Amino acid sequence: MTDAAEHISMDMEQFRSMLLDSVGVGLAVVEQETFGVLLHNAMFGEWFPDIVSGEVSFTDLLPKFDAELVKQRIAQGESWKCEAEVKPKRRAISLAVEFVPADGAGHGEIMVQCQNISKIKELEYMIESYSKMIERQNRDLKKEKERVEKLLLNIMPQQVYEEWKEFGVTTPQRFDSASVLMLDFVGFTQMAISQDPTKLISELNDIFTAFDRIVEQFGCERLKTIGDAYVAVSGLPEANPDHARNIARVALRFVRYLKRRNENSEVEWNCRVGINTGPVIGSVVGVQKYVYDIFGPGVNLAARIEAVCEPMEILVGEGTYTQIQNEFRLSDVGEHEIRGFGSQQLYRLDGDFTPANDSI
Asked: Which distant-in-sequence residues (6+ apart) come within 8 Å of 44 by Cβ?
């Protein structure tokens, strides 16, 4: 070999070395039987110094490394991959390691290729963290939505809420025939002064909870409570031809419940109940504090009838009487002068000819 040729040969060896060190991956050639390192570039030596020096083996550093399995895969011309975490310096890095059959058939060597996938792992971790955060936020939003829906359903009927949710507004509706129940407790103002407020409100809450169950049982709607007053409706927002019958049964159960409660209660609760059947307008009113309310002479007359009731008495107007007279026991209590409505024929609701099968 001439001096020039020898010089060129040395440059080629240097070039190969530079090429191996500049590819950005760790490369090594290992012996197939012992997996001892025969050749490696600088990056492989930096990442696996203990393997290069022979102090440890691949089995010690690579999870799931099975020498026999790797040999078997290589013998079949297939590669074997795994991931490993090494800490060549102060910071750990993640590597993708692949054992592939080396070119140059007949030598039986294995090429080990290592690629730094720390950035990819960090990105995957960030994506996973964001996904979990979004899932958590979605769960929180769902809970908050359910809580808001529950609150709104306390102040407006389901059908009205669905319209409001879809369109952002509700259309005032006129109901030509609906039944309104107004209940008020006798002497509640004096009770509020004389009774322990915590105990009194607790009892009132128990009673209204029971009333809600009765109202729901007969397909009616608790519209609102105003202090000790309880307002329920039937026949709106969904029309129901049995609205007068249903609201009458609700009133009878209210009174029956209170009578049973008074047998064992320290506080005696007496109510007045007025029922009227007539045209009603229903709508959500308010901008910041929504409330579904009803208006019209049918509502006002129910309130005025309630005001003339005796304790534990249920009075109904002519409109209700006409619709339920054949199914309920009613007593004519004569004409009463009702403010704003003149003389009105009223009837006392005494009972039901065909009591409903209920447990309250």
From this structure: 26, 27, 28, 52, 112, 114
CB < 8 Å & 24+ apart, contacts of 239-244: 239/175, 243/177, 243/178, 243/179, 243/277, 244/179, 244/275, 244/277, 244/319, 244/320, 244/323, 244/324
Q: Which residues of 295-329 are buried (b: 16+ CB within 10 A; e: fewer)?
A: ebebbbbbbbbbebbeebbbbbbebbbebbeeebe
Strands laid side by side in the 93-101 sheet? 37-40, 26-31, 109-116, 93-101, 80-86
Closest CA to 96 of 120, 72, 71: 120
How far is residue 341 from each of residues 99, 190, 297, 303, measured CA to CA in Å?
97, 30, 9, 12
List, in sequence order, every residue forming a beta bridge with 179; answer none if it has no partner: 234, 277
Q: Which amino acid is at 175?
A: F
CB atoms inside a 10 Å sphere around CB 203: 17
SS (H, E, C) 320-337: HHHHHCCCEEEEEEEEEE
- Under DSSP, is residue 151 helix (H, G, I), strand (E, B) or coil? helix
Cα separations in angstroms, 100 against 28, 75, 78, 109: 11, 10, 7, 9
Q: What are the pLDDT digits (tens) for 302-318?
A: 989 998 899 999 999 99
- Residue 327 to residues 226, 249, 274, Cα–Cα distance (Å): 31, 10, 18
Does the pTM of the predicted model rise above 0.85?
no
Report the percent of the chain where pLDDT is more than 90. Answer: 35
Query: Do 11 and 91 contact (CB within 8 A), yes or no?
Result: no
Tokens of 213: 């169950």
pLDDT digits (tens, 9 = 90+) for 79-92: 999 998 888 888 88
Cα–Cα dist 235/181, whole Å: 12
